[in-house]
Specification:
heterotrimer, A: 109 residues, mainly alpha, Helix Hairpins, 4 helices, elongated, C: 633 residues, two-stranded antiparallel sheet, globular
Chain lengths: 109, 163, 633
């Protein structure tokens, strides 16, 4: 235990921050980039996880377990969100026979 | 140790980019799973063993399988040509890059971090998380079960044949 | 002492009864049948009267001068602390007795008078609300509660003048009364505000105790009293704001009796008598009051000479009598003013109720030229009306004699010229009242289409009670000249600080009384000769050639002058603003804003096309800009 915790100190926190930012930006780019709704959902997962990673890193460097509990809660929310999101995709496929996000263009009302 | 960090990070970044740019949904899922496994590695590096295990179970075990099921159920496994116009795609890439740079610039203004609590031997383990979860965060924990039930009902609602 | 305090806390019941009556008759107005509303209202006002009488005796036997009953703290903000409190002293108890006593009689009368009207329940609800407001006015322990009552009676007056609102002329009269009152109220409320800034309080006790240490003629106090006077002038129908009162006769006759003769119009007198300490400090205001009062007394009496509508005659006579009260106030004889107020409430209410009885009998006819010979047909009305006429003319021993003579002698003390003018007004009053009496009751009936009959007992009963009061009311305050002790004046002087002290020699006073009596007798004889012997009927409107009588007939064109000087320019100014400013400038400007918005909307609408990826881009761009903004700033 002791060794691992001291091993954390070898990696600067900045590295984790930069990594999370990079993952978040990639996820966001994907959301903007793709038309496939399922792919967009996957990119959302990427963004979620980058945040999770950052939270865990801060938690570790703070020695505060609350951060990890929040990661746990974010996972809960992500799981719920994916369940609903995928069922929407299924319904969309069934109704308009496509998973193209641009077909959902009725959001103007 | 730092080498391990760089290795895992490289795997994550590459896989994430592959998720964005590869066209086949099945491939997307596979890349994402690899990415998440690397992230579990990061969790272990950060001394969060419990999270690492939960992450693998929930994400790679449940969510990604769900993705795979949906893709196969909807018969999307063959590459469907769903591409945005070139302008949009280029601008998406540029936006992502700018976003990255701006956030990096923002982190320049952060301050140094000091440990709030003395290091506990069960930090990050099931017992440590459990103690916090069932004392301080008991109410949100219980409420999250309601969230799950409503999500389940919602998913069933959407999944029904004729709504 | 102890007994008084425990009784006096019950004083909130006095206004509570009419309020209860208002709530009952107002809420159940669609359910009450026939006379139920009237009976409920009358009983509650009578209870209120009994309660007032009880308070009166409690106060007398206790020997205490005043008592304050605080119901609850109403406003507390900074320096402004206003409790919702009642001040029970001799003056307010007197006013309470008048308001509830005369009010109860008029309510009973109204059961007969308003019988069969469609909205009789609303009528009684409004009458009860009026009684409640009037009681608040006279009982309030500070100017603000007085003001609530003041506005309340004004509002009820508006409602009741326009009671038959299907007639546009009546609505116009109601509006006129309301607007005229509003002018006065503006002065009144400014006065209250100034009072608060000067004394840091609006409670009577606090203000008066501070005022006693002030010097006479302090400009601030003079200003306050003038502003309060403006309010009183509006409410009590003095020059120049009197024109609403004759028009207010559009309301049902009991309303005229209660509101526009006995109670509401005397609110101004009450308020000034209440503020006597302040007025004693302002000789300038006193002089203004003398001039206004005397001018109004004579002016209105002269107009009354040529009026042919029975209620209009009485209305002008009310204005004229109020003028006398103002004269008394201006002379510093506050208790005389309140005494005249009291007797006037009796005989003027009686006159109006008698007029109502006559109108009732004549089937709604109000023109005295068409009446005549009613003496035989309506004996009760005749005798009560006669008593009231004698009282208002100042014939001893009727009540009006004592009160009016008191004012006249005070005027003589001040200046013989005032006395002569005031006596002249009294003679004119006597003449037009007897002209009215002779035209209505003597001679032969001139309108054959109606068959006059005596009114039902529910209407004659209040007439009889009031006539007894009119006849004997004067004995409340027999001057020392006739071996009396001026009990009423002494009683009131406990709560009013009188402005004058000296007494006339009894020889002078007897001389004055005898000379005025001789003149009054001559006037009555003259009126008898013209209207009974010669049976002279006033000519129809607009026929008389004499310029002076024509002017009187048209009420000296005051309404026309107001209309030309104030209403017309104001109307054309409004027209200008409406046609030029509003239609040409404001409206287009507002329209342009609307058009611009919808054009902008059309422009922006293109962004809102439902394209999800565009939305996402916009969102990300927004977040980016936000972060950059935070980074830079």
């Amino acid at each position: 235990m002791k060794e691992i915790s001291s091993a954390i100190q070898l990696i600067p926190l900045e590295n984790y921050i930069v990594l999370s930012i990079a993952l978040f930006s990639i996820g966001m780019m994907g959301v903007l980039f793709r038309r496939n709704t399922i792919a967009i959902l996957m990119c959302l997962e990427l963004m979620f996880n980058s945040v999770n990673l950052l939270l865990t890193a801060f938690s570790a460097y703070h020695s505060d377990p609350s951060g990890q509990v929040f990661v746990f809660f974010i996972m809960i929310v992500a799981a719920a969100e994916i369940a609903v999101g995928l069922s929407i995709v299924v319904m969309m496929k069934r109704n308009v026979d496509s998973v193209d996000i641009n077909l959902l263009n009725r959001l103007k009302w | 140790m730092i080498l391990l960090f760089y290795l895992l990070s490289a795997i994550m970044i590459i896989c994430a980019l592959a998720v964005v740019f590869s066209k086949n949904p099945i491939n997307n899922v596979i890349y994402l799973i690899v990415c998440f496994l690397a992230m579990a590695g990061h969790y272990i590096l950060l001394n969060a063993q419990f999270l690492a295990v939960v992450h693998i179970i929930v994400y790679t075990g449940a969510i990604m399988v769900l993705f795979l099921f949906v893709i196969m159920l909807l018969n999307l496994n063959k590459a469907i040509i769903l591409r945005k116009s070139t302008v949009t795609r280029v601008s998406a890439v540029i936006t992502g890059g700018v976003f990255f740079l701006v956030l990096l610039a923002a982190t320049r203004q952060t301050f140094e971090i000091h440990a709030r609590y003395p290091f506990a031997s069960d930090f990050g383990l099931v017992s440590g998380i459990g103690k916090v979860l069932f004392s301080e965060f008991l109410l949100p924990f219980e409420i999250s079960s309601i969230l799950f039930i409503s999500a389940m009902v919602g998913a069933l609602m959407f999944g029904k044949k004729d709504v | 002492m102890v007994a008084l305090n425990s009784y006096i806390t019950l004083s909130w019941l006095v206004p509570a009864f009419p309020l209860l009556g208002f709530l009952i008759t107002g809420m159940a107005k669609n359910r009450l049948k026939n006379n139920q509303a009237g009976i409920i209202a009358s009983i509650l006002v009578s209870l209120s009267f009994l309660m007032s009488a009880f308070l009166f005796f409690a106060l007398r036997s206790s020997g205490q001068e005043s008592a304050t009953v605080t119901l609850f703290n109403w406003i507390a903000a900074g320096d402004l602390k206003i409790p919702f409190a009642f001040l029970i002293d001799n003056l307010s108890v007197t006013m309470m007795l008048i308001v509830t006593g005369v009010g109860a009689l008029i309510h009973i009368y109204s059961i007969g008078y308003m019988h069969g009207d469609d909205r009789v329940n609303s009528f009684f609800a409004q009458m009860n609300l009026f009684t409640f407001s009037m009681l608040l006015l006279v009982m309030g322990a500070n100017y603000l509660i007085l003001f609530i009552g003041w506005e309340g009676v004004g509002f009820c007056s508006y409602l009741l003048i326009g009671f038959w609102f299907k007639n546009p002329a009546f609505n116009y009269a109601a509006r006129k009364a309301f607007v005229m009152n509003r002018i006065g109220d503006l002065g009144f409320i400014l006065g209250i505000i100034l009072l608060f800034f000067t004394f840091k309080s609006v409670g009577f006790t606090e203000v008066f105790s501070q005022a006693t240490s002030m010097h006479s003629g302090t400009p601030l106090v003079t200003l306050i009293t003038i502003l309060l006077l403006v309010g009183a002038v509006g409410k009590s129908a003095q020059i120049p704001l009197y024109t609403w009162l004759p028009d207010a006769m559009a309301g049902p006759t009991p309303v005229s009796a209660l509101i526009h003769a006995a109670t509401m119009v005397t609110a101004g007198i009450y308020m000034i008598a209440r503020s006597s300490i302040l007025y004693n400090l302002a000789p300038l205001t006193m002089n203004i009051m003398i001039i206004l009062g005397l001018a109004t007394a004579i002016f209105a009496a002269v107009i009354g000479l040529r009026q042919n509508d029975i209620k209009k005659v009485l209305a002008y006579s009310t204005v004229s009598q109020l003028g006398y009260m103002f004269l008394a106030l201006g002379l510093g004889a506050y208790s005389s003013a309140v005494f005249h107020l009291t007797t006037h409430a009796f005989f003027k209410a009686l006159l109006f109720l008698g007029a109502g009885s006559i109108i009732h009998a004549m089937g709604g006819e109000q023109d005295i030229r068409k009446m005549g010979g009613l003496r035989k047909k309506m004996p009760v009305t005749y005798f009560t009306f006669l008593a009231a006429t004698l009282a208002i003319s100042g014939i001893p021993p009727f009540s009006g004699f004592f009160s009016k003579d008191l004012i006249l002698s005070k005027a003589f003390e001040n200046n013989p010229l005032l006395y002569i003018l005031a006596l002249g007004g009294a003679l004119i009053t006597c003449f037009y009242m007897f002209r009215l009496l002779y035209l209505v009751f003597f001679g032969s009936q001139r309108l054959s289409t109606v068959h006059p009959h005596e009114s039902p007992r529910v209407m004659t009963f209040p007439l009889i009670i009031l006539s007894i009061l009119s006849v004997f009311g004067g004995f409340l305050n027999i001057p020392s000249l006739f071996g009396g002790d001026s009990r009423f004046g002494e009683f009131l002087n406990k709560s009013i600080i009188s402005g004058i002290t000296e007494e006339l020699g009894s020889a002078t006073e007897i001389g004055l009384i005898v000379s005025s009596l001789i003149l009054l007798g001559l006037v009555i004889l003259y009126a008898y000769r013209i209207y009974v012997k010669k049976a002279d009927i006033p000519v129809a409107d607009g026929v008389s050639t004499n310029i002076f009588s024509k002017a009187i007939e048209n009420k000296f064109y005051v309404d026309e002058i107001y209309s030309a000087v104030i209403e017309k320019p104001f109307g054309s100014l409004s027209d200008f603003f409406f046609n030029k400013v509003e239609n040409k400038v404001l409206d287009p400007a507002v329209d342009e804003v609307g058009i611009l918005t919808s054009k902008l909307g059309n422009l922006v609408r293109k962004l809102q096309q439902g394209n999800m990826s565009f939305y996402l881009f916009a969102m990300v761009a927004g977040i980016l800009l936000f972060i950059i903004f935070i980074l830079i700033v």
